[in-house]
Write a structure and sequence with these properties.
The chain has about 375 residues and is α/β, with parallel strands linked by helices. It folds into 2 domains: about 130 residues, 3-Layer(aba) Sandwich (Aminopeptidase), CATH 3.40.630.30; about 220 residues, HUPs (Rossmann fold, 3-Layer(aba) Sandwich). Helix content is about 35%, strand content about 25%. The chain has 11 helices and 15 strands. The protein has an 8-stranded mixed sheet with strand order 1-2-3-4-5-6-8-7, sandwiched between helices. The chain has a 5-stranded parallel sheet with strand order 11-10-9-12-13, with helices on both faces. The two termini are about 35 Å apart.
């Protein structure tokens, strides 16, 4: 695609030399190239790259302006072009990450600010905004309808369950024993080896015996590509993206505290300890830091942490289940998962998922 804006034009960046120029621009602004970009657009003044940005699903990422063109409206031109491209693809809602001082620029383009996170230790900060509809207020109204009539205050558990294990089940049983009502939010982003409809169904079937609990889809505001994109890429500890992962984790928790918890009347968030995944371990650490801190604009939450359930001297985890599937040690899985998960794993519908796991080396 290509479009003219006065003496500047926006065109798609496809070729390697242009991609290298984009990478150099991002590096100069302390950013990295987003993974999984569906579209990369550049704003050119002649042959000079003045600004560039990516569309990853419905999220604008990797947006940068050359220092010599700051203050000339380059970012606004580029964002307008990306919004048009998103609309042409049938996307009604678009999210964007930006530095907190630049949030006002996006608000001037019709974006709504959802949350801001600052990490003083790294000097990094990020603001999350959205444009279009349905937006967060629509989603919150729907969540409120689903939680209507449930006792308050409540507890919340956020899970991915890739797949649902006895560890997840024990966490939810414990949360229900400690809270008048528990809302379980299942990560809806479909980036896991077990598809979201399967994960949601397994959680629901594995918790039918818990009477004071509801299971909800997590939607686009709970550990999603918009709120926590690095959750799905899992950067290596110490890598350049590691600090970004901490920032995204903090941003997701700010969205949870500001928008999700008040709708559900939540005063507690229950979580299992994380002995394996550095990203999730960082998320749990930040949860203990951010959610209980007093703040006038949203209620503080107590963090309740349950040690991981163990079998044969090792923590029960979904990653262990997937590793056993890859190794062909299927019978060993039975002690790690509820009967409802075990029954599904042996069903004909599980065959394509199991084959995908065997062919994959991803941690997710």
């Amino acid at each position: 695609m290509s479009a003219a804006y006065g003496d500047r034009d926006v065109r798609e960046i496809r070729d390697d030399p242009d991609r290298d120029e984009y990478r150099t621009l991002l590096t100069s602004r302390g950013l990295s190239v987003p993974e999984g970009s569906d579209l990369v657009l550049g704003l050119y003044e002649g042959e000079r790259l003045a600004a560039a940005g990516s569309l990853v699903g419905n999220v604008i990422q990797g947006l940068a302006t050359a220092r010599e063109t700051e203050g000339e409206g380059s970012a606004a031109v580029l964002v307008t072009a990306l919004l048009k491209a998103a609309a042409d693809r049938g996307l009604g809602r678009v999210a964007v990450f930006t530095k907190p001082p630049e949030a006002a620029v996006f608000e001037g383009l019709g974006f709504r600010r959802l949350a801001v996170a600052e990490r003083p230790a790294t000097g990094l900060g990020a603001a999350l905004l959205e444009w279009g509809s349905p937006g967060i207020e629509d989603w919150k109204a729907d969540l409120a309808r689903r939680a209507e009539g449930r006792p308050r205050p409540s507890g919340v558990v956020v899970v991915n369950c890739n797949p649902f294990t006895r560890g997840h089940q024990a966490l939810l049983e414990w949360a229900a024993s400690e809270s008048s009502w528990v809302h379980v939010l299942v990560v809806e982003e479909d980036r896991s080896l077990f598809p979201f409809p399967v994960r949601l169904d397994l959680v629901r079937k594995g918790t039918t015996h818990i009477r004071n609990l509801d299971v909800h889809p997590g939607g686009p505001y709970v550990i999603s590509s918009a709120t926590f994109p690095t959750y799905f890429t899992r950067p290596r500890p110490g890598s350049p993206d590691d600090a970004a992962a901490e920032l995204h984790a903090a941003l997701d928790l700010e969205v949870f505290r500001t928008h999700v918890a008040p709708v559900l009347g939540a005063v507690e968030r229950f979580v299992g300890t994380e002995p394996y995944c550095p990203t999730t371990s960082t998320y749990n650490r930040l949860m203990r830091e951010i959610l209980p801190a007093p703040r006038p604009d949203s209620p503080a939450l107590e963090i309740r942490e349950l040690p991981r359930v163990e079998r044969d001297g090792a923590a029960v985890s979904a990653s262990r289940v997937r590793d056993l599937i890859r190794a062909g040690r299927f019978e060993e899985i039975r002690t790690l998962v509820p009967e409802t998960t075990w029954d599904w794993l042996r069903s004909p519908g599980a065959a394509p998922v199991l084959e995908r796991i065997r062919a994959s080396d991803t941690r997710h």
